[in-house]
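Support reply, case 0932

Customer input (verbatim):
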Amino acid sequence: GRCIKFTSTNDVKIWRLCTLERVAPRRYLLRRVAFEFFRCDSTSVFLALPRGKAHRQLAKLLKALLKRRKLPLLNRGYANGHAGRRIEGDDNGGLGHRDPEKALRLSRLTDLWRRRLLTNFAYLSALNELGGRTRQDLAQWPVFPWVLAFDSDAIDLGTGRDLAKPIGAQTEERRSQFLERYETFEDPSGYVPKFMYGSHYSSAGVVLHYLVRALPYSQLAVDLQGGRFDVPDRLFLGIEAAWRSTTNSMTDVKEVIPELYYAPEVLCNMNSLPLGTSQNGVRVDDVLLPAWCLNDPLQFIRVHRAALESDRVSDTLHLWIDLIFGDAQQGPKAVERANVFYHLTYEGAVNVEDIEDDEEREATDAQIAHFGQTPPRLFGSPHPRRKPASECASPLFLDVPLHGECPAVSCRAYVLDDVQNAQKLFGPDAPLGEKATQKNTFVKDVARFTKQLFTQKKKVSRDISPALCVALCSGGTEEQQSVVCAFHADRGVSVWRWSEVPDGRGAPFSARPHGSGRLDVCARGDGDGNTVTALADRRVLTVGHSDGRLRLHDGRGRIRASIRGPHAGGSAVACCGHGHIAVSGGSDGVVAVWVCDDAALVDGLVHGDGVDDEGFEGDPVLAPSRSVIREDDSDDVLVCSHLLLGHASAITALAYSPVLDCCVSADVDGYLLVHACRSGRCLRSLRVVDRRESPAVTKLAILDVDASVVVAASTTLALWSLNGGRRCVVTTPSPITSLATTRAGSAVVCGSLDGQLTVRRAVDLAAVHTIDLSTHGAPLSLAFGPDDRHLFAATAGGRVVVCSDPRSRLLQLDAALSNAVGLDTGLFAF
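Our regenerated output:
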């Protein structure tokens, strides 16, 4: 009852039940006979079963295990009301194949996208996931649209591919040719319905065409071609050549893959693969890029991604969604919009099991496997259009472009240090970073503020202990209100009740003082933002104590766990975390991954590799460290799941990304190590700093969108790819004290010792805005809210500063009402 065992002719696979975090029904060869098992170590397994008895028995078994609470991670989500995220299937929490259209209606993805709380990239990724597209099956790889037209040497994000038309009908001449084929086609046997396109926009061949330079897909491409690479002239030679073929050839209607929007590595022949020589005598190597990106793959990805998120694409993307996932996928609308493919690309076109002839059945399966599969329909009616940016309470700095000039951004800073009201630093009409001239918009003590503003050396008031960390802690239940918590170096905790509803006094939020308290023990007073991190359920992890221990505090400041743990050879000096996962680094070079108050996840991580593929049980490969205050306490409060031992010197900075499931750690010698947190695998080692020339790394921040990390070492700020290679480097006027990145990946915010908050463009770290917080001291910790509408800064002066867009007050009210009722209120619909 602890494992699921699958046996084939020459292979045995065993998976422990405790490792299954999510189970999603999938299609295989357009038949609903597969499951994808997502394990807690961030890996997944795609399992296709024979239609009929085996598939039904597995579905029945999984339902029974769920009801008997034998799937701890899935049961946890179901009990907490999050079954939709962990268990996909029928409305009773089972594992049948639920109607995708109904599943999408039950979600709020479309509403979030319409209100610009999801980027175009994130929304398309979610639709592909809901449509069963998975990277575990080349035939069902996620599909993305071409958005630019590569017909000239210049680049203009305002023009490009017409998203209202299929890629095969971009020109009227080509469209008429496909319509003529449709009208004149007639199968003598009456078996094949009329169609326009004999090929498909996404297939295993299309995916390998784009990924031919990236391992292990290079080997798969060789296998597909019978042991060699395809003819050089048919390979993915260049972007412009691929666009010309897609828009002119009668046999090529392929869209693109998401990797062309975030992975410059797929454009480079980094492994020096022998791709051959074309007919004109040119050796095939890296992908040829448009002239405007100066043969720089990273620059191409940046501009391509900027085009995907542009206003032009946002205004018309719903029309492309109708073609791929919506009501124009099949039927009369598909004919009207020239979007009809060969019938075997659609689910239900033929029942393969009813084909009695073995050769015909195998040929049909081969056709489905290699020539494209249309996703299931997600929308039964036209997809709604995205709202204009002027009608949405957008995340901060979302309009910081990845390419081109940066427009003016409206932002104002508020200080949460007044019991009666939040204070304003800047005037209502002052651009970001400029001082307002109206005295009534300064903080209460105008004379002191003016003196500090114009004196050559600004002095920071130290009447409040430095705030080492700030976090927006959401309520555990609907009845519990969210709170903003600031953790000070003197063990003090300041708390404000937080609401997205404007307070009626000018701020686009409400932050009411809720009280203050003290942690039982906290880090040393000379600590910084690296020594405190806020976790789920209002837990707080602190390091940097004089005794070298880690301490976990609950929502009332009491110590839940005090652990020396793996840092026996030194002190825990840095920490970071999110949710129930925390990471600590010690002066002994050891990095430890901790699980906080999640016994099911601990069980999954510790025992996930206890059974190998041959089915022989062994001891768990992970040895958890557990030490709580009371020895008779039976709760697993804080458990060490992995020790990451690659560093040879003390840890100086850490960063953790729950999206990528990776931890980046920096040491005194200037090395960065990238680890997969849940599996403990070391993914990459980078030398980013030469200690003989520059100081050690002090701050790190991960950009999830393009898998890169921002590295700060005193006044040096650099952007590195997690796959290796420095992308850019800049020098700042003052040492960096804190870092934060936007979820959309458009901006990096840096706090510096001189009290400045600098907003930098993520792609090249160019400074585009500055906010002066020098009156309150250097920002020691930065944190965005869950929707990136607000930026929280904890300062050395003990203050908490909230940066928000003052123009969004009414839009915030509309969004808050929408969240409360689960609907779009339409206050700004015209």
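We compared this against your earlier run and they match. Two observations from our side: Confidence is low (pLDDT under 50) at residues 78-94, 418-462, 610-634, 821-830. Residues 53 and 59 are 10 Å apart (CA to CA). Please reopen the case if you see a mismatch on your end.
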